[in-house]
Amino acid sequence: MAAAKRYKLSKLERDERRLGFALLAPAALLLAAVVVYPIAELVANSFYSFRLTRPGFRFIGLENYAFALFEDDRFLHSVLNTVIFIVVTVPGALVVGMGLALLANQPFRIKWPVRLGLLLPWALPLVFAGLIFRWFFDFRQGFVNWALEAVGIAPPQWLSDPQLAFVAVCVAIVWKSSSFMALILLAGLQTIPKSLYEAAEVDGASKYQQFVEITLPMLKPAIVVALIFRTITAIQTFDIPYAMTGGGPGTATETMAMYIHKTTIDFLDLGYGSALATLMFLISIVATSVYLRHTRRDTGRH
Amino acid sequence: MNRTRTFLAATAMALPLALAAAPADAQQTTLRIFVGGQQRPDVMRQILDAYQARNPGVRVEVEIGGATSDQQQQYLNTVLTSRDAAIDVMLIDVIRPAQFAAAGWAEPLDAYLGAEKDAVMARYLPAYREANIVGGKVIALPYFADAQFLYYRTDLLEKYKLQPPKTWEELTAAARTVMQGENNPNLRGFATAGAPIEGTVCTFLVPMWGAGGQFLNPQGKPDVGSAAARRSLQLWSDLKAANVTPPNLAEVVTDRIRVDFQAGNLLFAMQWGYAWNRFQNDADSTVKGKTNVVPLPGFAGNQPATCIGGWQIAVSAFSKNKPAAVNLLRYLSSPEVSKMQAILASHLPVFAEVYQDPEVLRVNPWFQFARNVVVTGRSRPVSPDYPEVSEIIRTNMNAFLAGTRSADQIIADMNSRLARVYR
Fold it and tell me: CB contact, 8 Å: A141 with chain B?
């Protein structure tokens, strides 16, 4: 009797499991078609010599990877550039975004102009932002050099000096991404109860102490989420330097994604481009898992 | 009631449309041609209107895209690697036929030309005939020719009693004299393309050829470390150090030279033929009637050289209307259209006889000697991997002109990367 009952229960369970799989199947198939298959194809291509400009498709094992990692200075240089962009623009956007969020969180009577100002840079397509900043930093017609000349400073060649071009691109990226940071941080700020600040006020805490002791700790989850998103997109930095400098002067501001684009789309070297893209994919996975581990530990403690 | 009336109204509106469309669709062939923004799509439209008037069964749509040769090619790369049939006919740069042949993107025209093939091809200027035949197959037909010339300001040279320069040494000296005499901070002596764009490849090659150098060594391998190549690099760094070129040379793109010259801010410019028409006809041109062109200088004791350019027309291998597309191609690559282009856009003809045409010469007096320049023009390296070859040269040249890498560094980098492409 007990055995029969158990059997009956497990049949129900099995049915439910079957239904569950059936309901999941479309999503799983779709995911396989648009995510798993392209990635598998990418990794497979990376082991071949496969150029559309020449007939032939030849297995060459790890040759593409060996060339990328040990011989291709340009690729290593583009990785280094990407890392510098991440190290500069992610914290940069966090600081600027924090300022904007604190500003937007002030008790203004009319809130929409501030919110709109926050949203606009975020809503602007990346390439537009790049084009706008290219004009901004233009040697002869740019706003920046116009302003510098007005105060008597000799205008530098922003986009044809490697260091200055890097600075200009970083400024554009920080401007573009800090509004995204600010939006997430603003959402976080609004969950902090006002009573905490009132209590601190009564205890005679200064504004700075309130920020360090209340705002920052309460905002930490929002900061971590914003940093994860921002870092992942920063690894893929493409549009803004592409529109501003085209990676120039020379290859001074070329990122990984730009070099991969050039190899695959311009040179039609799909084999080598796939190897580079696979390497970039691995870097993304490592960066994401470092963050994820951090957040998991974090939520576990709370 | 209301719904019925709406339905009736919709049917009544749709009916004549359907009736009108039906018979026309029966024989109408619609072709789509891809043209870059620089190749005067407006003039192309006028030419196509004339074609449509003569061929009522054919309608040709113009798709415009890409402000530079590279951007046009990027778009075509996407369309053609995906075997998209949306484009039937496309304009391609003179450097591309080898790539289109190797990738199988252009429909070879031999079968369509048949017995006429040799006679048809013999009518073109030799450089263009050769550029469009790859491995014995006709890959495309020439649309218009182009070459880089030395544009100069006649008023300024007369004022200082100078002759148009024949050598780079003379050019440097003349530029210095005029710049000192004018004392105008906006005026620069000379400009050429220096941004990482296709035109910058010629910035490297032209003085190298002008010093007697070759891109390929006798073994057929690229060598950019020759004495002539170093002389080319030395020329640019000298002109830059003497402030003859704009300080932001590494940002200069082809059309920026046109704009600066037109604004009266340049004495000399290394520029393609298309600019002539703009200098004479643009409303904002300050150099109307004060401009002339001569062949680009060489180095004393050597033959001057120039890059040939120009655009070819190819039929996509994926087109669904190939016979109609080939007919259109034959028309677009005819002396008649070459003459129309010469008059409407000052596009250089690909037929020797059009250069002598009195109507053409009335609009473009400089065509008289332009033919000689085009005939002596040299081709950029021919390779199925030309995009990569070009990119190696122009990014290195750009870094050199920006002053971020030395001549030795870029020669080493170019040679090692080119060796990989040509291996």
Answer: no
Contact between A250 and B398 using a beta-carbon 8 Å cutoff: yes
Q: pLDDT digits over A11-39, tens only?
A: 888 888 889 889 999 999 999 899 999 99
pTM of the entire predicted model: 0.79
Rounded to the nearest 10°, the torsion over CA A74, A80, A85, A90 is 150
pLDDT band of residue A63 (cuts 50, 70, 90) is very high
Q: Which residue of B has its CA nearest to A270?
A: B81
The pLDDT tens digits for A86-101 are: 999 999 999 999 999 9
* Cβ contacts of A55 on chain B, cutoff 8 Å: 102
Kindly provide the b/e burial profile for residues A64-76, where b requires at least 16 CB atoms within 10 angstroms of the residue's own CB: bbebbeeebebbe
Alpha carbon dihedral A36, A37, A43, A48, in 10-degree steps, equals 180
How do B137-138 and B266-272 pair as beta strands? unpaired
User: What span, in angstroms and rounded, lies between the C-alpha atoms of A236 and A250?
Assistant: 20
Nearest alpha-carbon partner for B395 in B149, B265, B258, B204: B204
B321: Cα within 13 Å, side-chain hemisphere: 20
**A125–chain B nearest CA distance, Å:** 19
Fold of B29-146+309-376: D-Maltodextrin-Binding Protein; domain 2 (3.40.190)
Structure confidence at residue A298 (pLDDT): 56
B-contacting residues of A 51-80, CB under 8 Å? 51-55
Partners of B314 in the β-ladder: B90
- Per-residue pLDDT tens digits for A197-242: 889 989 888 889 989 889 999 998 899 888 888 998 999 999 999 9
Place of tokens 């300080």: B247
B267 backbone dihedrals φ, ψ, rounded to 5°: -90, -50
Q: Where are the domains of chain B?
A: 29-146+309-376, 149-308+381-421
Give percent helix, percent strand, percent coil of chain B, each to the nearest 5: 55, 15, 30
Helices (H), A60-206: 63-66, 73-104, 112-123, 126-136, 143-150, 162-189, 194-202
pLDDT tens profile A279-297: 999 998 998 888 778 766 6
Which CATH architecture group holds B149-308+381-421? 3-Layer(aba) Sandwich (3.40)
Strands (E), B249-381: 266-272, 291-294, 308-315
- Quick check: A195 contacting B, CB < 8 Å? no
d(CA A247, CA A261): 12
pLDDT-derived band at B150, boundaries 50, 70, 90: very high
Number of CB atoms found within 10 A of residue B376's CB:
15
Flag whether the ipTM exceeds 0.90. no
